[in-house]
């Protein structure tokens, strides 16, 4: 019995393994506990192992690679079509084993521990930002019940609320004033946490030459650059910049049939966080471009015939492809590079 390909259905405590030989015949169906995983695969001859990209997948991929195995991570939606029967752990492991052998399967790059640590900083910062926004909205909503309206913007909450608490003419009860003051203290604590997380991300960005290189692209700052470097990993895993843009969901969704091509809105596949950062950065570039007296160039021509939101997605798509070109070919960003090549 020689296992050439194996599929693992990951879980918290119980793991299901499905193995086949070189002819695709099933030779192994086994359930393993967490503490049995390392010893089992350490004694198994090197083979191709498929794993769904889910919780702890990158940890196990690195662990199994250290034993000499070739590990491929796949998005769960690409594995689901290979489930033949009702869903259970054994059927999932068999589907993973079948999917990883497909020649046209798309795989997820395995992240190292440093990349995961940086992305953890981004996720924690994002969580604090959401909590801060929710807290500011709660304060604004509570005050509106007493007829006190705060203008839109989190800056206005920090500026106007202390004045309203101190104003004796608005007839707010004393207990309510104390409550709002407590919520404002919580908002300040969340704001401090966001600043601390951002400082750590910026420090990592400045220590990474690759991340600093990406910052030169208009619309990409330290936050976006560090997130892209940590998420993409080795850019050569993608065949082209178009694949990166599609991976981030910055391309049109297609619904074509019978020779009639129909393109819809952007697909919104992939990492929502990265896509949001790129689009917001593109919006900033558009605002700066609209303020300039010189109306020449690709972006201005696009704005002349398309909506600003469409232009923002198009610019984010272009930046994603530029990022791939810089990382895959080891180049430095040069403004007007495409125009110079065309000339």
Give a quick rundown of the structure.
The protein is α/β, with parallel strands linked by helices and about 350 residues long. Helices cover about 55% and strands about 10% of the residues.
Q: Sum up the overall morphology in one term.
A: globular
The largest beta-sheet arranges its strands as 3-2-1-4-5
Low-confidence stretches at least 5 residues in length (pLDDT < 50)? none
Arithmetic mean pLDDT: 90
User: What would you report as the Rg, rounded to the nearest angstrom?
Assistant: 25 Å
**Total number of domains:** 3
Helix content: 55-70%
User: Could you tell me the strand content as a percent range?
Assistant: 5-15%
Broad structural category: alpha/beta
Verbal overview:
By secondary structure, the protein is an alpha/beta fold. It has three domains: 5-100, YqgF/RNase H-like domain (Nucleotidyltransferase, domain 5, 2-Layer Sandwich), CATH 3.30.420; 113-207; 218-342, no CATH class. The protein is built from 14 helices and seven strands. It has helices spanning 34-42, 57-66, 76-79, 89-100, 113-144, 154-166, 174-207, 209-214, 222-232, 241-247, 272-290, 298-305, 308-329, 337-342; strands at 5-9, 14-20, 26-33, 48-52, 70-74, 252-254, 263-266. Helix 5 runs antiparallel to helix 7. It is globular. The N and C termini lie far apart (62 Å). The model has no long low-confidence stretch (mean pLDDT 90).
């Amino acid at each position: 019995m020689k296992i050439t390909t194996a599929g693992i259905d990951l879980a918290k405590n119980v793991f299901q393994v499905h193995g086949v030989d070189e002819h695709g015949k099933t030779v192994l169906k086994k359930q393993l506990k967490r503490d049995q995983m390392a010893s089992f695969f350490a004694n198994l001859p090197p083979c191709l192992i498929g794993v769904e990209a889910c919780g702890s997948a990158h940890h196990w991929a690195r662990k199994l690679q250290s034993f000499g195995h070739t590990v491929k991570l796949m998005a769960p939606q690409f594995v689901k079509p290979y489930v033949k029967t009702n869903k259970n752990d054994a059927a999932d492991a068999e589907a993973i084993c079948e999917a990883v052998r497909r020649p046209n399967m798309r795989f997820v790059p395995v992240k190292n521990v440093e990349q995961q640590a940086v992305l953890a900083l981004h996720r924690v910062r994002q969580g604090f930002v959401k909590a801060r926004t929710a807290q500011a909205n709660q304060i604004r909503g509570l005050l509106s019940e007493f007829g006190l309206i705060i203008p839109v913007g989190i800056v206005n909450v920090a500026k106007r609320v202390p004045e309203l608490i101190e104003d004796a003419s608005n007839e707010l009860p004393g207990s309510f004033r104390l409550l709002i003051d407590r919520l404002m203290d919580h908002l300040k604590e969340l704001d401090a946490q966001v600043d601390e997380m951002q400082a750590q991300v910026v420090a990592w960005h400045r220590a990474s030459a690759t991340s600093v290189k990406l910052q030169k692209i208009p619309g990409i700052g330290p936050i976006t650059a560090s997130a892209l470097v940590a998420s993409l990993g080795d850019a050569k895993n993608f065949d082209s910049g178009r694949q990166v843009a599609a991976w981030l969901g910055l391309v049109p969704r297609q619904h074509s049939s019978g020779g009639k091509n129909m393109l819809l809105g952007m697909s919104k596949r992939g990492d929502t966080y990265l896509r949001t950062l790129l689009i917001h950065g593109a919006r900033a570039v558009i605002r700066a471009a609209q303020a300039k007296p010189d109306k020449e160039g690709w972006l201005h021509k696009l704005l002349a015939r398309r909506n600003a939101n469409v232009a923002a997605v198009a610019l984010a798509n272009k930046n994603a492809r530029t990022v791939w070109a810089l990382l895959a070919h080891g180049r430095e960003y040069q403004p007007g590079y495409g125009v110079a090549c065309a000339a």
